[in-house]
Every structure is written in structure tokens, then in C-alpha cells.
Amino acid sequence: MKEKTVAFHRRTVTYSDEKWQLLSSIRSKAVTVMEKISDFQPILYGSVARGDVHKASDIDFFIEHIPETYLLEMALDDLGIKERSIIQATPWHLVKGAITLFTGETITFPITESKLREIEFYYFGGAIELDDLKEDKRVPGVDKRLILIRPNEEGHIEEEITGREAEVSKILNVSIDIVRERSQVLNRRDKIGRTGVYLNRRLMHDESFEQVLKEICDKDSNVRRRG
């Protein structure tokens, strides 16, 4: 079910023993993947970085710089690669590669040059590095309801971000522009629904990211402009 944005919201959430055990289990899986691709300096982002997980929480990673994709695939090969895709949210957004493992984790990375705000998107939701994960660190971030999750010893505190954009940008160490942008996008999604993505091209077994990107760029000026 799609999460609705929430206004005028503040509450303290205390985690049960079961919740802490679930978080530990999910994070253990994340460590396994991050260690395999540590040379690429991945970040873990979203609820697993913040701590507010549930049984169906995604384990998502992002690599900030354009990688040598064949080396990345080699590093992940023994974990089992289920799917490889090239995705672009809109004609103006970053073109990304995505690798999904059979165990469900997804590793996303730029395959065209990225802009600062496109990197900040991941930190807006909360993001940590491998050393932080091993030290059991949790960080603040904003969820899809536009609620700021601020971890504490018992669980976390939830606070709305509307009207607090400048404060939230400082807490998350991101620009106020990304806070405003994400607020607009998620509020708009509440009103008109998700509109899909501009590009989602699944790669065949014998295709490389670079090869398929070139083929797409040859045919699509929008993708070529970002390439």
C-alpha cells in the first residue's frame, strides 16, 4: 500500500525486542552485500539506515560514482544476480544502472554524470557507509510520508518536516533545495498518484550496461543529453 504524506505529526516510537531482532537480521544481510562491493564505496540508504524497518523493508544500496560495471558484476556474481536494468525517472533525471540480487537486495549506480541534488536524494532518506553499519549506527532521514525519523536509544522520534525545511536540511546535511524538491514530489504523488518512469530497460544476459546505454542514446535524445 502506498504511504500517504502526513501533516502535523510528532510521536515517539519504542521498539520491541522483536523489532530490534528484525533490524539486526536485515542489517546482517546488508553487511554481506556491502563487504562484497566495498571497493566501490557503497552507501546503504532508507529505512535500514534509519532503523524503522518492517518485515518487507527493502535493502537498497547506492554507489555515488560511475563504476566499472563488469567489475561490479564480478564482485556480486557469487551472491546471484537476478536482474540488471537501466532506469531513468524522467527525461531530466539521472540515468542509472540497477542490479537486483536473487535475495532481493538492489544496488543502484549512475551510468551518466550525476548532479549534486541527485546524490543528495539518497541522503535525504538517510544513508550510512559500511563502517557505520558495522558499528550499528543509525541516522536520521525522511520517509515517504515526509516524516523525519530521528533515531534514539529506545527506537525513534517521528516529526513532520513541513515548514521546517531549513532545519531539516541541517539535520540531514543536505541542501534545502532537495528538501523542498522531495516535499513537492511526494505531495504531488499523493494527489495524482505515481506516473511511472521514463526509462526501464532490462538487460539480457549477454548485454553490458555500456553497450545498451549507447544503443539507447543513439535513439533517444533525452537520454543522450544526460549521457
Secondary-structure blueprint of this entry?
Layout lengths: L9 E5 L2 H20 L5 E4 L1 H4 L9 E4 L5 H8 L4 E8 L6 E7 L4 E5 L5 H9 L2 E2 L1 H5 L6 E2 L4 E5 L3 E6 L4 H8 L3 H17 L6 E4 L6 H11 L1 H6 L1
Parallel strand pairs: 3-6
Antiparallel strand pairs: 1-10, 2-3, 2-7, 4-5, 4-11, 5-6, 8-9, 9-10
| Fraction of residues in β-strands | 15-25%
Using DSSP, what is the number of strands?
11
| Rg measurement, Å | 18 Å
Summed up, the helix count is 9
Succession of helices and strands: EHEHEHEEEHEHEEEHHEHH
Order of neighbouring strands in the sheet with most strands: 7-2-3-6-5-4-11
What is the residue-averaged pLDDT? 94
Helices and strands: which structural class?
Answer: alpha+beta
Largest sheet: 7 strands, mixed
- Which overall shape is indicated by the principal axes computed on the Cα atoms? globular
